[in-house]
Amino acid sequence: MAPAVLLLSGGLDSYTAGAITRDEGFQLHALTVRYGQRHVRELESARAVAAALGVAKHIELDVDLSAFGGSSLTTDAPVPKDRRIDATDIPSTYVPARNTVFLALALGWAEVLGAQDIVIGVNALDYSGYPDCRPEYVAAFENLASLATARGVQGGRFRIHAPLQHMTKAGIIRRGLALGLDYGLTHSCYDPDAGGRPCGRCDSCVLRAAGFAEAGAIDPATRTAAR
Questions:
Q1: Which one, of 115, 123, 193, 175, lies nearest residue 149 by Cα?
Q2: What is the pLDDT of residues 6-63, one digit of tens each?
Q3: Which one of 19, 87, 206, 208 counts the least CB within 10 Å of its CB?
Q4: What is the pTM of this model?
Q5: DSSP 8-state secondary structure symbol assigned to residue 129
């Protein structure tokens, strides 16, 4: 099996993207970044998801973006809740250059592994308006990867797989359920309480709930949180 580096957050999108890629015959190597996020609870989910996907190796890397600040996910600024989600409005939960940093780290590991494929669970339909989730951004980074690496200048190519890019959240959930995924392992909330329970009101919680409702499925993480 060809190796692929999966950027794994512990949320349902990266879990589904990884499962789709595994189903295509790739051997997954998962990279999770501890970047100073307030929802550090997602790291526990990343470990559970990595185990469920049967990854060859799971690396947790410390790159503390909270040193820069600039986001309500890396500071004590309030996380927006109960807002009308507008993809043209970039919310305070945007972490400056996060996906660029993450993809660069994944690219470095991929080059060491001899892997040509990197997987990221970005989505450009049901999302909060982050600029580094757009198709043109993914295409631009793929081009950069071929210009900035030894493999690239020697004629090799890197592929950035973003299998969820044009799917609705409901479509993502349906695909994952068809693949037999246990979404009870995942965590999506930006501002969980001290016990790790989701707030149910941030953008991520709202998009997740709407996705499960549209997919006609029950979110197992909601059942777990209610206990």
A1: 115
A2: 999 999 999 999 999 999 999 999 999 999 999 889 999 999 999 999 999 999 999 9
A3: 87
A4: 0.94
A5: -
- Residue 137: partners with Cβ closer than 8 Å, 6 or more residues away: 99, 131
Q: Say which CATH number the domain at 51 has.
A: 3.40.50.620
Residues contacting residue 194 through CB under 8 Å, at least 6 positions apart = none
Range of the domain at 199: 3-226
**127-141, pLDDT tens digit by residue?**
778 999 999 999 999
The continuous run of DSSP H or E covering 4 comes out as: strand 3-7
Residue 129 falls in which region: left (phi positive, over 0), alpha (psi -120 to 50) or beta: left
Cα–Cα distance for residue pair 182/52, rounded to 1 Å: 9
What's the total number of domains in the chain? 1
